[in-house]
Specification:
The protein folds into 4 domains: 114 residues, no CATH class; 132 residues, Tetratricopeptide repeat domain (Serine Threonine Protein Phosphatase 5, Tetratricopeptide repeat, Alpha Horseshoe); 83 residues; 153 residues, Heat Shock Protein 90 (2-Layer Sandwich). Helices cover 67% and strands 7% of the residues. The strands form 2 sheets. A 5-stranded mixed sheet has the order 2-4-5-7-6. A two-stranded antiparallel ribbon has the order 1-3.
Length: 581
């Protein structure tokens, strides 16, 4: 028994293992760090850096540690403290390459040198360099809490076990997962026990120990009831859903997937709140830094005035400075106005395109729904149940089409106005496709469409995960929409060009003419006449796909023949972008 989707969810938890214990132990860690760094509070820049670090203001910490390191200093221990604060701040900001660079500059006689090893191991896991992570973590697996100055060591065995699991060394992983669980049971660390049992279950799954795997998934689920971490709850409920399906318990599987969706929605809401708070915090930090810079500039002017310059020279300099200031302010204001005008023109153009789509396609959907509801009322009065059933299915298709249109409108507008978050990372295509296709299982069953995902698990590309999911959702949705009952949809990869991986979504559905194929490849959101007028769609989804593929430095191709199906081909880079590591 292999839980393909389960493995994906468990692997998502691995970065949490690195320092998940800090929430409960951070008070002691903070106290000890302050005591040891108070020796250098006579250094103004370091004092400010220490203050911002304790307040978790990472950007300000980086600013003042950079100023401290820019001074000529012969105090190696002070430099070590500055590099440690910078490495930790970059780690919290998830800028792992810079974090690694700072930790490697710390010498072995530093008080927190053991912490740097743990951090370097965690960074190596984030960068999927598991052998390197083991080089950092194995030599320190037996250290005690006393040597870690306020940080609990419960993640070390868990991270070692996770590395062995990802390196397919399941026997070694089994040993360390059990060590980690024993340690966590002694500490009564419920959150990390849930993660530990889940990872142990995954390892048993790879060892073909089905009964033990199921038992540990059940332990993880039972313990998850006593924690508040929505992400972990989402994973454990999904695991039990897959277990129930494997055991042939559909009613229980339905209960678990309903609970899974509930926690998933809660996690989404929590992340949205955190995102807004983080944005507000960043704006506040930038304003604070501007105020600090302004105060420093004013202090320099006052000091210069005290140097005994002649009154006439001071007045002349002030007049000249005032003129230069107002001139620069005027130039700056003109630049801001010009930039705002360009942004406004771009927003107006985007608005016009959105109105064009909404006024045509959304209005058509609403009109069709209005007409269908009128027919539905007439047939209900006539008790024509067969016609009522047909009209309800038609209404459902219209509403789904309108919902997809609105979703694509939102994503397209965010992309056009440069408000969408975009981060390129290394992705395993098999698991991304499995996750997206899972949402279409009910629709595939309803249309009796056979679905196959034959992508090798080793195939990886470099792209933004969320935009790739949007691309897949639109293409799979179209493949289902333009397929007949009992048709087939296959998703696979091929390697026809060096440095690129072609993701192919092939269906045996209606296909399209050469004119339609050429029209879909054009850079426009205006669609041509459809081959099948009964199928609702605006063409915006395909335009959104093309824009996101282009932003991922990929290419898009279509192979199709009317009546013989379609191949949608998304070609993505297998080579990391410049500056990725």
């Amino acid at each position: 028994m292999k839980y393909k989707i389960l493995v994906f969810y468990i692997l998502c938890f691995l970065p949490l293992l690195s320092f998940s214990q800090m929430k409960s132990e951070y008070g002691e860690f903070e106290k000890i760090l302050k005591q040891k760094s108070d020796l250098y509070i006579n250094e103004p820049n370091f004092k400010k850096a220490q203050s911002f670090f304790l307040e978790k203001e990472w950007d300000s910490t980086l600013l003042y540690t950079s100023k401290q390191l820019g001074l000529t200093s012969k105090n190696k221990h002070l430099d070590n403290f500055s590099h440690f604060l910078r490495g930790y701040s970059f780690y919290k900001k998830r800028v792992f390459s810079e974090s690694k660079s700072e930790f490697l500059k710390i010498t072995e006689d530093f008080d927190y040198y053991l912490h740097t090893k743990i951090f370097l191991g965690a960074i190596a896991i984030e960068q999927e360099n598991y052998n390197k992570a083991l080089e950092y973590l194995l030599p320190i697996e037996n250290i005690t809490n006393d040597k870690l100055l306020g940080i609990n060591r419960n993640s070390i065995e868990g991270n070692i076990a996770s590395c062995y699991l990802l390196l397919d060394k399941f026997s070694e992983a089994d040993i360390y997962f059990k060590k980690n669980i024993k340690f966590l049971e002694e500490k009564r660390d419920t959150l990390n026990l849930v993660i530990g049992y889940s990872n142990l279950a995954t390892n048993y799954d790879y060892l073909d120990s089905t009964d033990q795997a199921i038992a540990n998934y059940k332990k993880a689920y039972d313990l998850s009831r006593y924690i508040d971490d929505y992400e972990v709850k989402t994973g454990t409920t999904h695991n039990m859903y897959e277990v129930s399906k494997y055991l042939g318990q559909p009613d229980l599987a339905y209960q678990y997937i309903e609970e899974h969706n509930q926690w998933k929605d809660s996690l989404h809401d929590q992340n949205e709140v955190a995102r807004v708070l983080q944005l507000e915090k960043r704006i506040a930090v930038e304003q604070k830094q501007q105020e600090v810079s302004l105060l420093e500039a004013e202090n320099k002017v006052k000091e210069a005035q005290k140097d005994g310059l002649m009154l006439s020279s001071v007045i002349l300099l002030l007049l000249l400075g005032t003129g230069v200031y107002f001139y620069r302010e005027k130039v700056k204001s003109n630049k801001i106005i010009s930039a705002q005008k360009e942004d406004l023109d771009e927003l107006n153009a985007t608005k016009d395109k959105l109105f064009s789509i909404v006024s045509h396609d959304l209005r058509s959907s609403v009109h069709a729904l209005k007409s269908s509801n009128s027919d539905l009322v007439d047939n209900l009065e006539a008790k024509n149940l067969e016609k009522v059933h047909t009209l309800l299915h038609s209404n459902s298709a219209i509403v789904n089409g309108a919902y997809n249109l609105l979703d694509n409108l939102l994503n397209w507008a965010l992309l056009q106005t440069k408000q969408s978050y975009f981060e390129v990372g290394e992705l395993r295509l098999f698991f991304i496709v499995e996750q997206v296709a899972h949402n279409y299982k009910a629709l595939l069953l309803e249309k009796k469409i056979h679905f196959e995902n034959t992508i090798p698990k080793k195939d990886k590309v470099f792209a933004d995960q969320e935009s790739l999911k949007i691309i897949l959702r639109n293409i799979i949705d179209n493949a289902i929409k333009f397929s007949n009952a009992e048709d087939t949809i296959k998703i696979y990869t091929r390697h026809t060009k060096e440095g690129f991986c072609d993701l192919v979504i092939e269906d045996t559905g209606l296909g399209m003419s050469e004119a339609t194929r050429q029209n879909l490849l054009q850079e426009t959101i205006v669609t041509s006449e459809k081959e099948n007028k009964d199928i609702i769609g605006s063409g915006l989804g395909m335009q959104l796909c093309k824009s996101m593929i282009k932003k991922n430095n990929g290419n898009f191709f279509i192979e199709s023949e009317l009546g013989k199906g379609t191949k949608m081909i998304v070609s993505l880079s297998k080579i990391p972008p410049d500056g990725y590591y």
